[in-house]
Please model this.
Amino acid sequence: MEIKTGYLYHIKDEFFNVVNDDSLMQNHEKGKKRPTYFTIKDKNILWFIPISSKIEKYQKIIDKKIEKYGFCNTIIIRKIAGEYAAILLQNAFPTLEKYIDHVHTIDGIPLMVPTDLQNEVKSMFKNMLGLKKRGIDLFFTDIDSLKKKMLEENICN
Model:
C-alpha cells in the first residue's frame, strides 16, 4: 500500500501494544476502529493526527483556549467529506507504515482531505514542531521518544 500525505488511515492494534503509551487515543471505541488519522509522510516516519467526530467536546476546549490565550493552535474543526470533524494536532504521534491497517474509504474510494485543508494542517503541525524545538511542547504524548522508538525499529527490520 502506498501511503500518501493528506489521506485518512486506520492504525493496527499492534502499534498500541508495541508502544504501550496511555497518552495516545485508544484505537477502539464501541467496537469500531477509531479514530481515523490524517497522515503526514515525513521520510521514514508517518505522523498520525487523530480526527474526531466529537465536535461539541472539542469546540468547548477550543473556546477555553481562545478565552485564555486569544487563539487555539492545537485543535481545528473543519469539514471533511461533508461532515464537521475535529483535527487533534495536540494528539499527533509518529508511526511506521507497517502499523497502518487500511486507508479510510467512503463507498470504496480512499478519502483524500481537500488540498487547502491539508496545507492548513501541515502548516499548523510544522508550527507545533517548531514550538517544541524551542521548548514549548503542545503535544500530549512524548513524540520524541516515540519517534526514536519507531526509527530504531525501522532500522532493525
Notes: The mean pLDDT is 87. The longest strand covers residues 45-52. Residues 93 and 105 are 22 Å apart (CA to CA). The chain has four helices and eleven strands.
